[in-house]
Amino acid sequence: MVENSQLVAPAANVGFSLMVVTPWGNSEALREERLAPGPSNSAEEVGENQRRRLFGAMVASVAERGYANTRVADLVEASGVSLRSFYDLFPDKQACFVGAVGALVGSTIGPVLESAGLEKWEVDSKRRLGIAAALAAAQPAAAKMCLVEAYVAGPEAARAVDEAAVRMEMLVRDRLAGTVRWADLPPEIGTFAIGTVLETFRARLIDRREGQLPALAHQLTTLLLRYEAPVRPLRSAARPPEVRPEHLEAGDHAERALRAFEALLTGQPLAETTMEQVAKRAGMSVKTLYANFGGRDELMLAAIDSAGAQAVAAAVPAYRRRPNSPDGVRLAFSALFGLLASRPNLANLLLFATYEGGGPALRRRSEALRPLETLLTRIAPSGLPVPRAVLAEALLGGVLWLARRRMSEAGAGALAGLAPVSTYVALAPMLGAERATAAAEGRSYRRQPQEDAVDLVHAVTRSIDGRLVTALSQDALGVEALAKEAALPREEVEAQLAQLEAANLIERIAGADGVTFRSRWPDWRIEEWERLDQSEREAASAEIAEAINAEVDEAIAAGTFDAHPERMLVRMPIWVDEQGWRELHEALDLTFDACIAIQRRIGQRLEERGHPNEGFPARVHLVSFEAAPPEQSSDF
User: Is the dihedral of CA 536, 537, 543, 544 positive or negative?
Assistant: First the structure.
């Protein structure tokens, strides 16, 4: 432990191109933290000082070189600890790394897990996730070492991180169980929630975007607080698929090598897997293997590409078999988890071995599976408090983490049963508990028969103030904002909202900032229609068209339709090309915006006069559509 021996590394060249911030000091100053020689320092004090400096050197070196390329000599050089003292403290590089990860996990998990008293779950979750984001943003090198490089370093280091994740999952489950609103959430929600956080944080750290973490933490909390319990308990009737031996036969050398590589990774760590072993397992020469892949890293990325393509090839066609998107999500998950359950080697590669490949492998998996993110958010409504890209990334990340945990606890065969709960957690924040439950059960969400729905719509809307309907069509607003926008008393707004909600004409959206309401017939813009499939567009259009026809018939019958000579009644057949179609819609968009502006000016004017309820109801119908072909139409 004596540090003034001749084995202390020279201070001339610490070997870092950039200064790295670590919890034990900046990389350039670690050597300066050495205790002054003298009899006043006990062996325990010297040893603790050396450990801290070595841990700081480990964080800095791994940030600069990665775990695999970090050498004991690098640690000795950066820390100023002698080689002899290093081996007095640790038997090898891995033991030092495991010690550093354990110290990091212990110092960070405590503030996240510690109780702040009887806070509401909303406040508590924001506080805890905010602490985690602040720690990771302030110490990105240490955070990346735990969330990425720990899996490269081997199972002992990875175990420390996974055990900390389990502790956080149990915290979420316990806190939710103690609430009224969330007590009946599926038990998997804790694992899913932590998975969304870990996977999105991990991606930011890999791409050096740690500055986004505080804002991301707020977005994730907002997303997770939208969840409500399913309206019925979720059950899985899926039987584990038959697992057959995964044969190595393939049409070419490259594919055979990939399958051999997958099989090897199921039984041993990536770090212990050599190109020679792959060649032997695949029944080919090492020369042939190198002719197809430049090395193990290239082989790993190619294996992830292949596995990701197979996962997407299973999920996307299943999704497209149903025109109803919620059903499509369930079928996609059923196909995906059925594939992984029947192919344990493939599942192990995507859910476990990829982490052993570090940042490049995890980034490649994200790229390979990105089409699945698109499937999950095609039906996301506008007005969500979470950006679409964050929503897609978080949902898929949480589901994959949930699958990883299920496989580690019960084997690959248990993955087949994850489709219902995965469907629910993917759809609930977008569609609400009822529709997400129906989709998870494999039952399409059933609306009322259209003729009954139309009767109900008009029975309700005749008693609803048009200003409130207009406000609801613009955005998701709370009661206070709606009262202000519609110039109506709060109690009147609450009463009319109750009628609209009972008739299923509005959606209640629970968020971190309270409850908001939004029309089921909002201001549909182009990007929103694009996210719907044809049958969903037709269903929405049929309801709106029925409402328009009924309003016109009622006005004609009441004699009000022709009461004002200024009213517009135009039917304009028009022949367009694609550019003309876009120009037409730009003009109609401007007209719609102008109508909204007029409505607001009217409200302000009547409010200033002190008579907000003066005036009379009117309707504006803006309709454009591609007509039937000329031979089927009398337009021309």
Answer: positive
